[in-house]
Design brief:
Strand order of the largest sheet: 7-6-8-9-10-12-14-13
CATH architecture of the largest domain: 3-Layer(aba) Sandwich
Low-confidence stretches: 4-35, 55-60
Bound molecules: beta-D-galactofuranose
Order of helices and strands: HHEHEHEHEEHEHEHEHEHEHEEEEH
Largest sheet: 8 strands, mixed
Structural class: alpha/beta
Distance between the termini: 35 Å
Number of strands: 14
Helix content: 40-55%
Radius of gyration: 28 Å
Mean pLDDT: 89
Number of domains: 3
C-alpha cells in the first residue's frame, strides 16, 4: 500500500516537473525560436531521460519493487534448503522483488517476532511457513490490521484463517501413501508380521501431524504393531539419536522403520549400521522416508531405502502467481497443492491407491536422478 501511494506521488511529481520544463520554450521569436526549439527539444529529451531514470530510481527505491517478507521455518533439512532456494530464486531483485528473509531456526517465538518485524517494515506481502500449527491468530490479526496480505506455504495453520492463500502438500495423504505402500510391499514379500518404529518430524508441525495421522490410519486398519514413535525434529542428528536409542531398547524386535523425512532416515541408517542392523531391500528392516531429495532417491535406487514418499518444496512459483493476482486486483486461488511422486528402487510394488486415486510407483534410475530439482 505504501509502495503504491509513494509511486503515484513520485510520478505526479515527475509529470509536474516535465510539464513546467516543456512550457518554458513557448515565449521565443520566430528565427531564434527555430534554434531555440531545437535546443528546447534536445533539453526536453535530456530532461525526459533524466526524469525517467529518476522515476526508475524512485520506483526501485519505493515504487514498483514488491517487498516480500518471508519467515522460513529454519535450515533443518535438505528439503528446507530447497524451499528457501526456490523462494530466493523467484523473489529476486531481477524479478522486481525485495526479499526480506528470516531463518527462524525452528523457534516459534523467533518466527512470530520476524512477522512483527515485517509489519514494522511495512512490507507489501508476508510469506510464512509455520513451524507449528497453533499460536498464529494474534499476529495474523496484526497483519490484517496493517493491510499486509499473508500467504502461508508448506505447513498449515490451524488456529486462524487470516491469510489470503495457502500453497503446499497434503501431509496426511503422504502418510497414507507410506502405509499403503508398506501393505502392498509386505504382501509382495510375504511378510506377515510388521513391528514398526517411527521417527516423527517436529512435534506440532502439520507435516508431523498429517504423516502420523495418515500412516497410523493404515496401521490400525491392518492391525500392525507400532512399537514406538518419537520425534527426530526433521534433522539427521535427531534421526540418528532416536535410532540409536531404538536399537538399544528394541534390539531384534522391529522390522520396519518409518522416518518422517530424508535427513532423519540418513541418521537412522548411520545408527543401524553402527548397531549391526541391516536395512533396505536386502536387509532385515524395511526403511521408509519422506521428502524425495536427490540423496534419498540415490539410496532408494541402491536399495538402501525401500520407499521414498515425495513432498515437493517448490512452492515459490505458485506463490508468485498469487502475488501477481493480488497486484492485478484479482482474487487469488485460496488453496493450491504442489504435486509429488512415490519412489522406490525395486518393482515389487508397481502402484498404490491413496484416497481412491491409483498412482504409479516411480523406479529411480540414474537418468531420473539427473532431473531432480533438489
Ligand atoms: C514438509 C516440510 C518438512 C519436510 C522436512 O511439508 O514442512 O519440513 O518434510 C522439513 O524435511 O524439515
Amino acid at each position: 500500500m505504501k509502495r503504491k501511494i509513494v509511486s503515484v506521488l513520485v510520478c505526479a511529481a515527475m509529470v509536474a516537473t516535465m510539464a513546467v520544463g516543456c512550457g518554458s520554450s513557448s515565449t521565443d521569436t520566430s528565427s531564434d525560436a527555430a534554434a531555440t526549439t531545437e535546443d528546447a527539444a534536445a533539453e526536453e529529451d535530456a530532461a525526459a531521460t533524466e526524469d525517467a531514470a529518476a522515476t526508475d530510481d524512485a520506483a526501485a527505491a519505493d515504487g514498483d519493487v514488491i517487498t516480500v517478507g518471508f519467515a522460513q521455518v529454519g535450515h533443518e533439512s535438505d528439503w528446507r534448503t530447497a524451499s528457501t532456494q526456490s523462494c530466493q530464486d523467484v523473489f529476486s531483485a531481477e524479478n522486481g522483488y525485495d526479499l526480506q528473509f528470516v531463518d527462524c531456526d525452528n523457534d516459534s517465538a523467533v518466527q512470530l517476532e520476524a512477522v512483527r518485524g515485517f509489519i514494522e517494515q511495512q512490507v507489501d506481502y508476508i510469506i510464512i511457513d509455520p513451524i507449528v500449527t497453533t499460536g498464529w491468530d494474534m499476529v495474523l490479526t496484526e497483519c490484517e490490521d496493517a493491510g499486509i496480505p499473508v500467504i502461508v506455504i508448506d505447513r498449515t495453520i490451524e488456529d486462524s484463517d487470516k491469510y489470503v492463500a495457502w500453497v503446499g502438500t497434503d501431509s496426511k495423504a503422504e502418510g497414507l501413501a507410506a502405509g499403503e505402500w508398506l501393505k502392498a510391499y509386505a504382501e509382495a514379500k510375504d511378510i506377515s508380521e510388521l513391528n514398526i518404529l517411527v521417527i516423527e518430524g517436529t512435534t506440532g508441525a502439520s507435516a508431523q501431524i498429517g504423516r502420523t495421522e495418515g500412516f497410523n490410519e493404515i496401521a490400525e486398519r491392518e492391525g500392525w504393531n507400532i512399537i514406538d514413535s518419537q520425534t527426530g525434529d526433521f534433522t539427521q542428528e535427531g534421526g540418528q539419536t532416536v535410532m540409536e536409542s531404538y536399537c538399544k531398547s528394541y534390539e531384534g524386535q522391529f522390522n520396519v522403520v518409518v522416518c518422517q523425512n530424508d535427513n532423519e532416515a540418513f541418521g537412522a541408517m548411520d545408527a543401524m549400521t553402527a548397531a549391526g542392523v541391516s536395512y533396505g531391500v536386502d536387509g532385515d528392516v524395511i526403511l521408509i522416508s519422506f521428502d524425495g531429495c536427490r540423496a534419498a532417491l540415490e539410496y532408494a535406487m541402491d536399495g538402501q531405502i525401500n520407499a521414498v514418499i515425495e513432498c515437493n518444496p517448490m512452492a515459490a512459483p505458485i506463490v508468485e502467481e498469487v502475488i501477481q493476482a493480488l497486484e492485478a486486483g484479482e482474487e487469488p486461488v485460496a488453496e493450491q497443492y504442489v504435486p509429488g511422486s512415490y519412489f522406490t528402487g525395486d518393482d515389487s510394488v508397481t502402484s498404490i491407491e491413496v484416497n481412491g486415486e491409483a498412482k504409479e510407483m516411480t523406479i529411480v534410475t540414474p537418468e531420473l536422478l539427473e532431473t531432480r530439482p533438489f
